[in-house]
Amino acid sequence: MQPPANAHKRALFLSPEQPGLGLGGGALRSACVLQYLQRIYDVDVVTFQLKEHSKSLQSRVMRNAARLLRGTPPLFDRYSGYESQLPAGSYDLAVIEHFWCASYATALRPRVRRLVLDLHNIESQLAETHAASIHGLAKVAQQRFAQMYRDLEREWLPKFDTLLVTSEDDRARLAHPDARVFPNAIPLVDMPRVPESSTIVFSGNLEYHPNIEAVRWIARELQPALTTQIPELHWHLVGRNPHAVEPLLHGRTNMHLTGPVDDAIAAIAAARICVVPLLSGSGTRFKILEAWAAGRAVI
User: 134's torsion region: left (phi>0), alpha (psi -120 to 50) or beta?
Assistant: First the structure.
């Protein structure tokens, strides 16, 4: 996306998560887009103060059952209804991060000259690939959510002047006259100088369902096979929300939950190999970019 001709105009940047480094791939992409905008515009950044809700399994099941009945997928529902937190005033540009917040186009359109939606994923594709990798009632629910997202994409995407996507593959999935590739990237950093260890690393927000599926597959399929051949091998799972995968590691003493770290690239560099066994998803993977920045092989 080429910079506008006139600098120092006003822009609104609306994100459901705080942009920043070390907070996961979505926050990192948002930080890159925001950094670009701040070179050109005076930017007001808005992130929502969400209502508290329980993260217990029972509560999640009940919420998602209600969403299935209402016909609203989880994240679209979670981030809707906070129009009162939007700032007043007019803007030359508004960038909305994630399709989850696409419904704010209605409130912003009357006072924004150009409206842009940054699609970190094609949500219908993400839900569809998730459904293909699971079984039972969860599979049925995800198939239904995928259809909901397809319906919502047909409704909301035409309301935006420009769509940003992460790849040519995602652009090809959209029937929009102005869909542009804004590639995922990370800031230029020096390659860490740390010794390799007999360790394999997997990194990411461990509460994100493609990452949960990946850890489950590692624990069931990959780790037992490699440990038989290389008993001294250790696994490091690096990232936020380690509680989400902790039950999957029961009895596996050579698999370690590192948790969130200040410098993911340095943590990856301490391993010999980075694995990315993702069975579902859309967009592109920041963990691969971070492994390349760390100078480590990626499988």
Answer: beta
- Structure token digits, residue 191: 């390659």
Q: Which phi and psi angles does 281 have, rounded to 5°?
A: 145, 180
State yes or no: pLDDT of 191 exceeds 90: no
Single pTM value for the model: 0.81
84's tokens: 């009162």
- Averaged confidence pLDDT in the chain: 89
Distance of alpha carbon 164 from alpha carbon 173, whole angstroms: 12
Residues 215 and 248: their CA atoms lie apart, in Å, by: 8
**E-only strand ranges, 24-111:** 41-47, 91-97
Q: Give the CA-trace dihedral at 227, 228, 232, 233, to 10 degrees.
A: -20
DSSP reduced 3-state for 9: strand
Residue of 30, 46, 32, 42 whose CA lies nearest to 4: 42
Q: Tell me the C-alpha distance between 157 and 204, whole Å.
A: 28
Residues in the chain: 299
Which phi-psi region, left, alpha or beta, contains residue 43 (left: φ > 0; alpha: ψ -120 to 50)? beta
Whether residue 211 contacts residue 239, with contact meaning beta carbons closer than 8 Å, is answered with yes
Which of 132, 130, 138 shows the shortest CA–CA distance to 64? 138
Q: What is the pLDDT of residues 42-51, one digit of tens each?
A: 999 999 988 8
Cα–Cα distance measured from residue 95 to residue 262, given in angstroms and rounded to the nearest whole number: 28
CA angle 80, 90, 174 (to 5 degrees): 50
Alpha-carbon span 198 to 174, nearest angstrom: 43
